[in-house]
Design goal:
The complex is a heterodimer of chains A (245) and B (408). Chain A is an alpha+beta fold and 245 residues long. Chain A contains 9 helices and 12 strands. Chain A is elongated and about 110 Å long. In chain B, helix 3 (71-83) packs antiparallel against helix 13. The chains are: A alpha+beta (245), B mainly alpha (408).
């Protein structure tokens, strides 16, 4: 037979076994590394965090208004006003500017403060009428308190309310407030889905598909127009008039 | 484009013919760049095929008695079937392993596989001296049981039938034939299992065709394990073709694909790249083992040896690492580059075994004539035309009509 050759297959058996063992040994790190969650995505996730209703702080003893402000009546009869945790989580780090000063009289629905981030603004309207007794000067210097402790050191005004019993009728309190916050988060996700379609495509990074959790500080990456829409739907004075559900 | 029309609810005879006639009309623009290039090629290819059947195969090819199998078999049949392997891998993943995330691309891949087998088995006819004898293995006028071709012939026939059954629910949806759809959908899983079983053997069977040519194929590519190599490489060849063709279809037929499937696209491609990376890792080591086993290390320092190293490192190891890297970094464009490199590697490997490494030592090497290239291109273009015709009419990329999910 032409081209017949004999080769000793046992000569190479040793090396072949070693290659097989090397393959199996290499397969383990190959598979592990292939499936490891990459450092970059881990960092992003931990940095941004996932915003879900469970992580919101909602002290049960406060009055929560529909424009995401809270009121706490102290023993002296003076009420502290502040911004709620959901709003802070949505916006991220903001610069706070007070509009009114001590001694001024305000009515419910008056412009109280402006929070700003890179030129984008949100206006905070007063949930109650009364006389301003104090403004939190600490906030004008650093906003760390607003972010970390929105219900304590992060208070924005002290007001002596003139009509608080009537004006707090449409407030949320205790467990209602917790439920309402969760619903507001869902409403915000819907709002994002709606407005995103009208604006830019690159914001898709923020939302995970199919109604999953959104990232923390979602608004911080979104443009001006969306901040205006957010203002209109979540923070405007007509929110204060709507009856509590 | 295509509105969701409700055609003959159940054939009442008259309207189905009108419907079919209307479907024959072309949809979309006629003078697209693809059409302008492909129509002359197809017409010329048809002319060449007619010439070939009148004047014999030697009149348009460079095939000789020493190299009777050339580009048509090496590329159209052997490589084409390797690329059609995406169908059996994907149906295995979706129906057997229940990886439902790939469900949306099953139909188009099965369609691709079916068309590939039809056209490439058809291209096989071009190589036969007596094409009418192609039915012999089936009808028994000399079965030819001692040849691997007996297995290949039967498998091709059965596999085409299985693919057709798998795809037929889409045809039933197009025709509005609800009862037929119900019956055919019930047969899907059986056709899938049958198809996968067939595929494993005929993918390797095409490699087995070359086992007899021990002296004619360069030692670096010849081994007793060619069938196993062909089978394993058909897995990632098919998946790379799915990635490649899926990316193109996604752009071309953009308007048909639903919003949900658009978003899934990258997710699917990324998943496929992981499978390719794993398979190519195993394949590389298999090749290494075979290389050591055959004991032809001294041949590495020859021109053919360098060519072998190029194929191994440049077109197997490199795309494997690209798939690996792009899976980890979520880089979709790199997946597509890796898929193209992989496909080139598979083409290279198959051509090395069948054409380039085949009789590499002859004084006058076989080089395909330009006419062989034209015919090959014509076959591929015709397949793409039919593919486009089906996609534009049947619910392959677009969603099924609403009556499909009604309770029966």
């Amino acid at each position: 037979m032409d081209g017949f050759s004999y080769s000793n297959i046992f000569e190479t058996k040793g090396i072949e076994y070693l290659v097989i063992i090397a393959f199996l040994v290499l397969l383990i790190p190959f598979w592990i590394v292939l499936n490891k969650q990459s450092r970059m995505t881990k960092q992003i996730q931990s940095a941004l965090g996932v915003l879900s209703a469970k992580i919101l702080r909602i002290p049960q003893g406060l009055f929560y208004f529909r424009n995401h402000t809270w009121m706490y009546m102290e023993k002296t009869g003076v009420a502290k006003i502040g911004l709620d945790d959901l709003l802070i989580h949505l916006t991220g780090k903001v610069k706070f500017s007070t509009i009114k000063s001590s001694g001024e009289m305000i009515s419910k629905g008056d412009l109280l403060a402006v929070i700003a981030q890179n030129g984008k603004l949100l206006r905070i309207f007063s949930p109650v009428s009364g006389t301003i007794t104090d403004t939190n000067s600490m906030l004008n210097e650093s906003n760390g308190e607003l972010m970390e402790d929105p219900y304590g050191k992060g208070w924005i005004y002290k007001i002596k309310p003139s009509n608080w019993i009537a004006e707090t009728k449409s407030c949320y309190f205790a467990e209602e407030a917790t439920d309402w916050s969760a619903k507001e988060l869902e409403r915000f996700k819907d709002f994002l889905a709606r407005t995103m379609r009208n604006y830019t495509p690159e914001t898709a990074m923020i939302i995970m598909q199919d109604g999953g959790e959104i990232c923390d500080h979602s608004l911080s990456a979104l443009p001006d127009e969306i901040w205006n829409d957010f203002q209109r739907e979540f923070l405007n004075p007509d929110q204060l008039q709507m009856p509590a559900k | 484009m295509n509105t969701n029309y409700q055609i003959a609810l159940d054939h009442d005879g008259k309207s189905i013919w009108k419907f079919l006639l209307s479907e024959l009309k072309p949809k979309g623009k006629f003078f697209t760049p693809f059409n302008i290039i492909s129509i002359p090629v197809m017409i010329l290819g048809l002319a060449l095929i007619v010439y070939r059947f009148i004047y014999g195969i030697g009149s348009i090819t460079n095939l000789t008695q020493d190299t009777p199998w050339g580009l048509w078999i090496g590329f159209d049949v052997v490589t084409g079937v390797a690329f059609a392997g995406g169908a059996y891998v994907l149906t295995f993943m979706v129906y057997i392993l229940n990886m439902q995330k790939y469900h949306s691309i099953v139909r188009v891949t099965v369609l691709n596989g079916f068309l590939a087998y039809v056209f490439y088995a058809g291209a096989l006819l071009l190589d036969l001296g007596r094409p009418w004898h192609v039915v012999n293995p089936i009808i028994g006028n000399s079965f030819g049981v001692s040849s691997v071709l007996f297995l290949v012939a039967w498998h091709f026939l059965l596999y085409m039938i299985a693919q057709l059954i798998e795809f037929s629910p889409a045809i039933a949806e197009w025709l509005g034939a609800r009862r037929a759809h119900k019956i055919l959908s019930g047969m899907t899983i059986a056709a899938v299992i049958f198809g996968i079983t067939l595929s494993t053997l005929h993918q390797s069977g095409l490699g087995a065709l070359y086992l007899m040519a021990k002296d004619k194929i360069h030692p670096l590519w010849y081994s007793e394990f060619i069938p196993v190599m062909f089978f394993v490489s058909s897995i990632f060849a098919g998946l790379s073709m799915v990635i490649f063709e899926g990316s193109i279809s996604h752009k071309v037929f953009f308007s048909q694909i639903s919003e949900k499937h658009h978003k899934e696209q990258n997710y699917i491609i990324r998943g496929l790249s992981k499978i390719c990376a794993g398979t190519m890792f195993a394949y590389f080591f298999l090749k290494l083992l075979v290389f050591i086993h055959e004991q032809h290390w001294d041949l590495l320092n020859t021109p053919m040896g360098y060519w072998y190293l190029l194929e191994m490192f440049g077109f197997v190891l490199l795309p494997m690492m690209l798939f690996f890297y792009s899976y980890r970094t979520n880089n979709i464009s790199m997946v597509k580059i890796a898929a193209i490199l992989t496909m080139l590697g598979v083409i290279l490997n198959r051509l090395n075994v069948t054409v380039i490494g085949f009789r590499w030592d002859m004084a006058i090497r076989y080089i395909p004539s330009w006419m062989e290239f034209i015919v090959t291109l014509a076959v591929i273009f015709t397949e793409i035309w039919i593919f486009r015709w089906v996609i534009n009419r049947m619910p392959v990329l677009r969603d099924s009509p609403s009556w499909v999910n009604e309770p029966k």
